[in-house]
Amino acid sequence: MHYFSREIQTLLERGDVLELVLVDGEGMVLEARGDHYPPEQLAALFSPLHRLLETIRLNMDIGGIEEISVRTLSPRMRILVQSFSVQESPFLLIALYPITTFYRQVTSDIVRIVKECIRKLAPQGPDGEVPSAPPTAGRKEP
Questions:
Q1: N or C: lower Cβ tally within 10 Å for the chain?
Q2: Which CATH number fits domain 6-121: 3.90.550.10, 3.40.50.10680, 3.30.420.40, 3.30.450.30?
């Protein structure tokens, strides 16, 4: 499955983004573009943020944390980790940017595109609604 559209590939080709990794709530790489670091390495490093962000949210009694940003010295770049949900499923977008990129608008565009792709890929019922999760394995229906 592809979560990154041609629009995102254009951002990479122009150099607005160096690398992108989309990770699900379990830390699995769903899609990656760019080759600065192995996607699985980035996922392993940043996936624990799902739990950290939830702990911070609960302890600080806030609505949530949208992003965490790290600026590196050598090589000079910004690593942005943005948490978002689609249909109650958590995702992380890990993006590496040149330090000169106005990353906020680019990130907003990327997340919008990814959310649209995820929604299109989700199975839909005859009424256009996404069906609820199937019953847990081993549970008997009445």
A1: C
A2: 3.30.450.30
* Alpha-carbon gap, residue 111 to 82, rounded angstroms: 9
**CB under 8 Å to 63, separation ≥6 — which residues?**
57
- Tens of pLDDT, residues 6-47: 888 899 999 999 999 999 989 999 999 998 999 999 999 999
DSSP states of 16-80: S-SEEEEEETTS-EEEEE-SSS-HHHHHHHHTTHHHHHHHHHHHHT-S---EEEEEEETTEEEEE
